[in-house]
Amino acid sequence: MKDFKSFMSEGTVKFDQHDGEDEDFIKLTKSLGLKVKTKGDETVVSGNDGKINKMLKTMNMKKDEDGYLWLLGRADDVLKVAGHRIGTAELESCIVSHNDVAESAVCGIPDDVKGEVIIAYVVLKNGIITDKSILEKNLYHKIRSDVGAIATPKEIYFVSKLPKTRSGKIMRRLLKSIASGEKIGDVSTLDDPSAVVEIQKTVIEN
Q1: Which pLDDT belongs to residue 47?
Q2: What is the set of active-site residues?
């Protein structure tokens, strides 16, 4: 899927549907001294060609022969559990393939023994009345069967929504902080901050 538009001109990149208010994106462009202008869903980044290329490399993006920018898999989308590398996309796809699941997000939190353990957040489809303890067992079984026992989450939390930016990007940073019991920081870029409150309550109660 082509998530981003092509270069507008030399020394300038135009993102179509990129959240210019994303915290990591802001930190990156500021550190490189790049100028960022956001209007609606359009974000324009301008500056020195070398710095532009460094930004693209950091974001793990690649320009194809048609002039489009492709967002590649990032290192922080890989979980490291007991020496094994597990892709978050693979695990999330497995969970979402369950008939009762609408959406899912996984993250890793530090563990003294395994390095990281997996935490999964699951949003069910509307109208699902199956007991959540049964769903949890079914999901654990499905993950072990489809991905492998090493990918079994330490916890599965059922929530009604995931924290997302206005452009729809899931804020895994917040999910990781909540699961780790850390301070979550700025949530001003979220489309619906109440999602964080609900998830915090769910984690505490479980």
Answers
A1: 82
A2: 76
For 150, phi then psi, to 5°, come to -65, -20
Question: Higher-confidence residue: 36 or 92?
Answer: 92
User: What letter would DSSP give residue 141?
Assistant: H
Stated length of the chain: 206
Distance in angstroms (rounded) separating the CA atoms of residues 136 and 156: 7
Q: What strands, in cross-sheet order, belong to the sheet with 7-9?
A: 7-9, 12-16, 42-46, 35-39
pLDDT band at 3 (very low <50, low <70, confident <90, very high): very low
How many Cα atoms occupy the beta-carbon half-sphere of 109 within 13 Å?
15
Residue corresponding to tokens 């890989």? 78
The owner of tokens 């915290």 is 23
Percent of the chain scoring above 90 in pLDDT: 45
CA distance 145 to 140: 9
pLDDT at 2: 33
CA-to-CA distance for 106 and 177, rounded, in angstroms?
A: 12
For 66, other C-beta atoms within 10 Å of its C-beta total 7
* Residue written as token pair 């049964």: 134
